């Protein structure tokens, strides 16, 4: 963990014990906020003015804002259904790219906002009991007891909290309905009075009106708990995707009752003066028409039950906010301590109760409630911003509930209204309230610093890191301090009596700067350092992971260690959070990571191809596992007894000079029969097959080595005829289908045979070679026998070893170029053809017919071809004579990479003139992928190089090839030239090709000219160019130095060679 970034750990699941009704009952602890906030709104407290009867429309506006924000809140909390703590605790992932302190600030502000509610409602409950039932009961101790009682219930688990909340909610909701509906049906509501509103202002003028309205809106931020409290227990709710939205709807409905219906009805029945007094003493008339003498008791218990809600909810909801953030690694560790049996966060719950008691003992004055509401507004505004950020930054994230179209921005609008009310209304509550509110807001940063220091000390690091983020944030905090000092100096120089509006403006400016400090001082440094750390962490992960593995893998591949030739791909894209230079840096880094990933996947593909080739050899030498001496199902000897018998027969045959055969037998399609008819039928089928094999073996040793595999050992006199006869008997024995439990089941055999001593010098080799032959029998279509072929086995081994060596031949500089001259018909050399040769360190010169084909099969021809091209161009560019150089291109080179660019770079790097380079291709290049090949050939032609058709006449569409592309030269294949003297058809073909070239005005060169007679015939037929041993053998260019340096350009190359 660091102070600039934090990864939110997965939340462990909580016991899901709440239904939607229990969640809704707990949320009633938010609707009751109206009970104690309405008095503050109507008459205020002390020097703090209220808003008069205008408080009613302000309450309605507050409910509308809550309704506007609710869909976004629901979407937000359900994105992480295992979390608890409500909307503020759900912001952690949204704010992670910007600054984890924002998550802490949101959560702690939310928590502080609920603290006065817990203590104040306990005070009001205790006061009601003292006033009506226990006049000698001390209020504050009794209020503390109420807090402690509900704390105890919370420690027993959320299930017990819900059991207590449901009857309280049911009773208080019933009384709320009665208080609102009884006066309406009784005709007791003065509707004119109910809709007559008067606004109390702190000073004259429009700014005084605006300040009063904003102060009211500021306080009615406490309407939001009626909605968001239902989201505090998502991780503890059964089927949250269904039940949480239902609870939110139920809470919204109850908010309408408490914040719209009741204030309007009460104002119409009781008048504005009564609503500023103790509601328990004035609400009786709303119940009286129906309840009569019980109206007073109903009013008292309506207040008491709602106050019980207000005490219970913070201990259950807000406490879980703190514990959730501690679980996320954002708050001190002790806050995540839980009671294992009840899953209750006892430390956070106890802290909530303790602070609530402290506030209670202070009397929970209105200025303290206002300070707490400032933090609460931050706690409910930021989740709307988080929901909007998640829509922008994580549009494809899973959202079990998706807010309706437009409601996300509606929530952002509600957050904006709350913030404006905080700016313009907070200052009315006085300087101490402003300072105290800011202290509470910034306490989250201190708690986060506590956790950072705690974690760094656990890791053995210094308490604070000297990072850019710490420096930037510290500077912004200093700005806030200087702003506060400037505010105090300015206020002290202005008369509050003569210029109250100026003092209000100064206070508003101070609040704005404080909020800007939160946004700029926390968000901007967080974004900068987050982007830098993301790139730094990704680079470190790349260099220590994939790139390091890639380096190790390439070395392992070079030495043939396929298991180690693997580069793990651990690439996480860096997500840019801005469109500036930091975003561009992140984008470029992501491109680099993608290129590294592609290279790693290419390495794995090459490794797997080699592994398959190796597995083809190693699969034949699998060891036979040892079991018991006899198979319990068929009573045949098993693998262990087979090994002993084979050793005995081998020793006897070796000492006596005898011969014997080992046959491995496999049942064709037995698995399918076993799956279709069941294991019982399959077992009986195996027993029946074993009996037939024993009869057909005629005394030979038969063993079942597992599954549907059998092995036979038989002495033979005439090999391999006797072994063939035995195999035929076995095949015949099972040719008749088996009748098992009424099922007609056909079964065939695949047999592999190995004969001693030709096919193995020991028992292991015999078994392995018989098994290899069995593999060939299966590949040949099953129901047949195949004998071990040592030549095939040896060829496979040699081929694989050669393939491994070829991959490193270029790096070891084992490949070289030989040059064969090309001459006019009179012997004058005009160019050379570059031919690759492989000087193997142990095999010597490997024929091109062996390694070129192998290179084309495994793809290394691309690298070899590129090397040959560059080397030939480099060599030709160094000659004094401007002779032509011809280079062969493989069809594989046309499929992979950019061949035209390769040729262009080779010409640029070596300085060779394009008209001196001739590229030879076969017609297979065109017909493998015509459109791609022709496109590449046209690009090559545009470079100025020549294109020759090699081996003309050997393919199936030579004429079509000439029609598809304007070739610069035709090469007559050596197979026609070598038989031109003795084969009339070859002579006709050669004559036709030469004639075709003349007709199309394409030069023709004959390959493989070895005798004067062949040259003479070609001359007579009109061929102008030849190549072959008659002109010169392929040799290093040093053998032709006289020609290339211009000392004997008119000499025959054969003389030079």
UniProtKB/TrEMBL annotation:
Residues 799-1048 form the EAL domain. CDD domains: EAL, GGDEF, HAMP. GO terms for biological process: signal transduction. The chain crosses the membrane at residues 20-43, 55-73, 139-157, 164-186, 206-227, 247-267, 287-308, 344-362, 368-390, 402-423, 429-450, 470-490, 502-524. Pfam families: AA_permease_2 (PF13520), EAL (PF00563), GGDEF (PF00990), HAMP (PF00672). It is a multi-pass membrane protein. The keyword Transmembrane applies. This is Amino acid permease. It comes from Hyphomicrobium album. The lineage of its organism: Bacteria, Pseudomonadati, Pseudomonadota, Alphaproteobacteria, Hyphomicrobiales.
